[in-house]
Amino acid sequence: MMKQRNIYVDCVDTPELLMHDYEDQENPIISLHAILGISGYQTMRVEGKIKPLEVVMLVDSGSTHNFLDYNLAKVLKLPYKRGFRKEVTVANREAICTADYYKGVEWPVQSVRFITNFFILPLHGCDAVLGVQ
To answer: Which CDD domains match (predicted)?
Structure first.
């Protein structure tokens, strides 16, 4: 007999954020744990799927936005947008630049479908970082 699993998601739409384009938002921040793919007290690893590929995602409350690994982005061949150059601040105060992002990427986790945007960055130890955006 399988145990029933419940997932509760509380979504709040913020109209002023919905009206702005993804590239117009503040400079993103990614935690050092997330960019290195290390689990910590602010992170949780989940397995998901983007297109046909199984991916390891790091849910990270220390990151402000979602990030997709550069190498995975090349493999997926999703259409990306080129925006204004953004400096992504790493928690150790270093900055990494990116101008590319994916808009409206669909990915399921445990039969729940999500559609989010991802900045493209070189990540280590995970395929994607899900921030608190």
So the answer is: retropepsin_like
Domains and CATH numbers, the chain: 15-130 (2.40.70.10)
* Whole-Å CA distances, 68 to 32, 74, 75, 76, 122: 15, 10, 12, 11, 8
pTM (whole model) above 0.85: no
Among the ranges given (19-28, 48-57, 81-90, 116-125), the one the predictor scored with the smallest mean pLDDT: 19-28
* Interval 83-102: pLDDT, tens: 777 788 776 777 888 878 88
User: Token pair of 74, please?
Assistant: 């090349």
Using H for helix, E for strand and C for coil, what is the string for the chain? CCCCCCCCCCCCCCHHHHHCCHHHCCCCEECHHHHHCCCCCCEEEEEEEECCEEEEEEEECCCCCCEEEHHHHHHHCCCCEEEEEEEEEECCCCEEEEEEEEEEEEEEECCEEEEEEEEEECCCCCCEEECCC
* Residue with tokens 């130890």, as numbered in its chain: 125
